[in-house]
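User: My collaborator sent over this chain with a note saying "see what the structure looks like." That's all I know about it. Can you take a look?
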Amino acid sequence: MKFIGIDLGWSSGASGLCCLNWENDRLQLIECDRQQSLNDILTWIDTQVSPTESAIVAVDAPTIIANPTGMRAADKLTHKHFGRYHAGCYPANLSRPFAQKTIEFGLSLEARGFVHAPIIESQKLGRYQIEVYPHPATINLFKLDKIIKYKKGKLAERQLELMKLCQYILDILPSLEPSLNLSCGTGILPVSCGTGILPASCGTGILPASGSNLPEMPTSTATLKALEDKLDALLCAYIGAHWWYWGIERNLVLGDRTTGYIVIPQAR
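Assistant: Without extra context I'll predict from the sequence alone. Here is the result:
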């Protein structure tokens, strides 16, 4: 079973992509990447997941939008449950400039056999897609009092906040169930990744091996954004795995298949 995380660029800009694989009762980090166009994103997914292979594609974008104006019920519910953590989501409706793109992406996944799964039987193999939202997920998974604000602000402030997110991922996701293996046991020493941001581990070019000291963060807005996209995609993929592994037992579903829904891991 594979878990694909997509931090979709809603209007313009690159999208972060991540692939995790379930093997030996753990999640293995296979690859993280960035792509620009929907066609390139779909081609990347096709490369990671064969037409007959089971997988969940977890997308940080509103792939179901039925309301002409205003907010979806799912969007409102994020503000109700997570507004006090500053984790309410951006409103989606059919008049937004991004709507056609995000809906089209969901339909393209359906054409590949990835059915929407606001309800799922835990650990049942299949081809699914879900909408996810990393900010409230980090509140619950990392037991935070407020979101890690790595998306806005001055470069130095964002560097510090993104470093916090890296550290939470390294420290906590390997300890959860399902566990994310970030060591890979290859014995390969961390090396500078292609973006010059973090050392590569197991060819992912995103995170260092477990136990490594985190290096300096990127020194430009562009390289910081590249890392942010990949880490968001990694979180999306993990949320997808958490949904598949536990189902409704340890996850919250805001909204429904008709009007749009968001899957969020429950607090441990």
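A starting point for your reply to your collaborator: Helices lie at 38-48, 73-82, 99-111, 134-141, 155-172, 221-246.
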